[in-house]
UniProtKB/TrEMBL annotation, chains A, B:
One of its GO terms (molecular function) is urocanate hydratase activity. Gene3D superfamilies: Urocanase like domains, Urocanase superfamily. This is Urocanate hydratase. The active site is at residue 410. Its main location: cytoplasm. It comes from the Bacteria. The gene is hutU.
Length: 559, 559
């Protein structure tokens, strides 16, 4: 039997202005789905894997083909439903409705665990959508660079007076998201030591200039770190090995990094985290043959890994979880104080979320990098006095290689997003841009996720686990006229631990698009401000008032 | 401190054609919210409890007041968001978008249990929405009568050659939903013995003619049953007591009912199921003082109750779970074979779901019973050759007292629903009806729920726990222009065990409404046919083909 999830061959999104579908509203999801599987974008495109463990773009190749075929014929008053990567229905809606509605990996809570998911997955009844994999707005490691950069910069502000020169960050995982860490550290001015157990992943990051050099062994790595930090050079170093071997060794040697975190795929013990004493190939094999035993071995290794992180924290090194649920896994293996070090959101990111700021992004459907450079300039023009943002854009242009369709990410918030979206739409209308752009965001955003071990950890009112919010976000984006909307479960932190939603909207230069953009790019971040205001955060309440939001129990603007 | 959830006073929906809001699209949710709390409708309106344990219409009275105030000012291009019974935001959308979007009781799976819910609830951060309580389309016990009737009739067909004369049904629970059982049994031609531990609930059912008589004790009850079954009279008898005391006693005495089921609120051990050896008041008190101990006591009593049900099954009596999750609770208390008797959906209802048939309902916003009688006649006219349906309508008119706004329920499916909705809209336009009607349904419907111990128990492909389906249903109804849409967790079977969605649409007699009705009342049941076709049910696949659905992996109609 051939594996319905494996197919050789290369997929790349069409470029240019020639439509393959009936309009740009359907061309956009078509190109972005294909772009998610571009070999320059996806981690393992032939297995449909985009990033984040087994985060996929479609259930299997037959489903992929059928999604493509259906999009090619979809009318502008029809909506395609995608259920865990399978195209299940086409329904008549209307022109202001989304063209695609997606639900991936959702399970009734009592059954919402990897064990049940893997059972369904084996039967062909499930797909892990991660966040932007199954919702077709992954843009390669760039998507995460700015988030990681913002986190490192904020940590630098809190712990090192805003200057990371001569400092170094210890982390692991150079996958789709984790691969952004070395570059983000460099952009933030720090050296970094990045442990990764697969040489192929290191090669990918070296090739795309996300990491600068590879050390031959631990001694070599430490020597390089010593030299570069002394010279004040922000250079990133990869080291091939298992983090759970290397971290304890560093503790033993008394080495003291300036910051410690981790982005292995700990959220998925069966597919994403290498147990000690194995090669990656042996792990893949063991996962097939003995899923329960392999899961256990991976989680036990995570316990070792987290124990070492806790040691660093005890030394006074700023240590944080980077959103892969490794603390939970270690806790389940008996590391009772696993949650002693904080997650990155409460530690560094929440104040941004309170203003609706998060990983906003856009991609040029033309395929032309010039389109992105022009939007970069437009952002600077419209947000003239944000130095940090200008600095980011300059660095991004200089250092970040496009993967697949040219794209940009910018952490901007309520007010700014709609302004930029409308301006981009104008640029499409006027012909300044050579083709439409799509605007989207990560599911890790201000108003779109409930994830008590990550985005909603330690909410001030204790509402961490309330997931009404992402559901309302998805419903409202649908009601506002987004081009596609998605609702996922288990992204980032794995089955059982999160619910979240995604949104993408097309700027095709029409008036109708402008109206939809104004609504969606206001309402979407506004739900984030609302959620944080409801939890009692002053920054969010102030922002709601400034921006004239109508939150009945909190603030009613004068009409 | 006063309890923010308790307020004396009576709420009834306004009647007539005078608007209290800016249009019928907002008047409708206003009236239906109030109608849910009408003392003739709700089980405990002063505590905001509508039915089903602690199923509420609003988080607390302050939230209720604010929802009302907000609806009064809401524009026809605005959307109100309600989060677990609290009005949290008003956003600009468009005229074809829903006016209200609701998410109730949703929790991230790992935390989706009663313990965490009750903690949040105590802090004022949660509300249990049940199915139609928090989504404002509960219409009193009538809402469930037909479902219960259809179930008893189908059971009669399967086990007794279609004739229940001289037969009797043993059950318990005369609450908001369970109270429909005696009447449904009578309509189906059977006697019934209905055990209920609260005298006040029996009084309510006697007053509204849902139950015929009350027995003084068990001997009296059995004597009456004996007499009426011998005479072939379908009379319902209430008996005050604890089901877990009475069922084992019946087993001991060797009494043999013809059917056994149960509709106590077993889904909520802390608030809805009386432990043995206590009065209801003692139970309420104990729940406050010792939640964990009381929960345990209730679940242990359920184990006794289920053990007795299993005994009846062993005697060959058709025995089924009626959707309150009592088997799961008993299982958790050590009754290993609790799931030996089936749930009512796989046993009797699924073939209907495969054709998109489910508890469709409508209410006359005028308050005028004549409006409902006219729609009854219209249903007969448009569906002329369904004898069973005509019989149901006749009996309903004769035997079912309206509670609150006059309303009707009718199990109809794909094709019929849109036809009826468009006809009702025409009747509003022409003035035949004195005011608009709203059309909705239970969350227990063909395409709107994932609930592995109830609606999706034993799906043929094993996809019981996949909850992408209700999420897609809610997104599609939003995209189709329903008037309000809701997404709930834990209805029927309690926290952790279900996810489901609701939809209501207004027929205000306009062309715009007609377009929305055509879409919503087609798409909504069509998702049910789609879900069952995807699971491989032939009835559903045939129905999809007949009705020209476009299900890309299954059937593509000729365009
Ligand atoms: N913080 C964020 O904003 C954010 C965003 C998205 C994802 N995440 C989470 O970060 C994690 C990484 O995401 P990704 O897309 O890079 O995943 P990925 O699966 O593409 O990459 C994970 C990498 O970790 C490596 N690895 C696994 N076990 C290892 C070990 N013991 N030692 C060293 N290396 C090991 C793997 O070889 C792989 O290259 C995931 O858990 C993801 O959910 C975080
Ligand atoms: N089958 C369906 O279609 C369907 C639909 C909706 C709800 N339900 C489920 O049915 C159950 C009942 O719903 P409801 O709205 O009537 O709830 P409710 O809370 O209004 O009524 C439950 C009744 O059971 C009685 N009761 C509790 N413990 C008892 C005991 N040990 N012995 C005798 N009586 C006892 C209570 O006094 C109460 O009157 C719930 O679990 C609900 O989720 C089923």
């Amino acid at each position: 039997m051939t594996d319905p999830r494996y197919r050789q061959g290369e997929i790349r999104a069409p470029r240019g202005t020639q439509l393959n579908t009936k309009s740009w509203l359907t061309e956009a999801p078509l190109r972005m789905l294909m772009n998610n599987l571009d070999p320059d974008v996806a981690e393992n495109p032939e297995a449909l894997v985009v990033y984040g463990g087994i985060g996929r773009a479609a259930r299997n190749w037959e489903c992929y083909d059928q999604i493509v075929a259906t999009l090619k014929n979809l009318e502008d008053d029809e909506t395609l439903l995608v259920q865990s990567g399978k195209p299940v229905g086409v329904f008549k809606t209307h022109s202001n409705a989304p063209r695609v509605l997606i639900a991936n990996s959702n399970l009734v809570p009592h059954w919402a665990n990897w064990e049940h998911f893997n059972e369904l997955d084996a039967k062909g009844l499930a797909m892990y959508g991660q966040m932007t994999a199954g919702s077709w707005i992954y843009i390669g490691s760039q998507g995460i660079v700015q988030g990681t950069y913002e986190t490192f910069v904020e940590a630098g502000r809190q712990h090192y007076g805003g200057d990371l020169t001569g400092r170094w960050i210890l982390t692991a995982g150079l996958g789709g998201m984790g691969g952004a860490q070395p570059l983000a550290a460099t952009l933030a001015g720090a050296c970094s030591l990045n442990i990764e157990c697969q040489q192929s992943r290191i090669d990918f990051r070296l090739r795309t200039r996300y990491v600068d050099e590879q050390a031959t062994d631990l001694d070599d790595a430490l020597a390089r770190i010593k030299r570069y930090t002394a010279e004040g050079k922000a250079i990133s170093i990869a080291l091939c090995g298992n983090a759970a071997d290397i971290l304890p060794e560093l503790v033993k040697r008394g080495v003291r990094p300036d910051m410690v975190t981790d982005q292995t795929s700990a959220h998925d013990p069966l597919n994403g985290y290498l147990p000690q004493g194995m090669s990656w190939e042996e792990y893949k094999d063991a996962a097939q043959k003995d899923p329960a035993g392999t899961t256990k071995a991976a989680k036990q290794t995570m316990a070792v890994h987290v124990a070492a992180m806790l040691e660093f924290q005890k030394m006074g090194v700023p240590t944080f979880d980077y959103g892969n649920n490794i603390r939970q896994m270690a806790l389940e293996e008996g590391v009772e104080n696993a949650f002693d070090f904080p997650g990155f959101v409460p530690a560094y990111i929440r104040p941004l979320f309170c203003r609706g700021i998060g990983p906003f992004r856009w991609a040029a459907l033309s395929g032309d990098p010039e389109d992105i450079y022009k939007t970069d300039a437009k952002v600077k023009e419209l947000i003239p006095d944000d130095e940090h943002l200008h600095h980011w854009l300059d660095m991004a242009r200089e250092r970040i290689q496009f993967q697949g369709l040219p794209a940009r990410i910018c952490w901007v918030g309520l007010g700014q997003r709609a302004k930029l979206g409308l301006a981009f739409n104008e640029m499409v209308r006027s012909g300044e841009l050579s083709a439409p752009v799509v605007i989207g965001r990560d599911h890790l955003d201000s108003g779109s996720v409930a994830s008590p071990n990550r985005e909603t950890e330690g909410m001030q009112d204790g509402s961490d686990a309330v997931s009404d919010w992402p559901l309302l976000n998805a419903l409202l984006n649908t009601a506002s006229g987004a081009t596609w909307v998605s609702l996922h479960h288990g992204g980032g932190v794995g089955m059982g631990f999160s619910q979240h939603s995604g949104v993408v909207i097309v700027c095709d230069g029409t008036d109708a698009a402008a109206e939809r953009i104004a609504r969606v790019l206001h309402n979407d971040p506004a739900t984030g401000v609302m959620r944080h205001a409801d939890a009692g955060y002053d920054i969010a309440i102030d922002c709601a008032k400034e921006q004239g939001l109508h939150l009945p129990m909190i603030t009613t603007p004068n009409k």
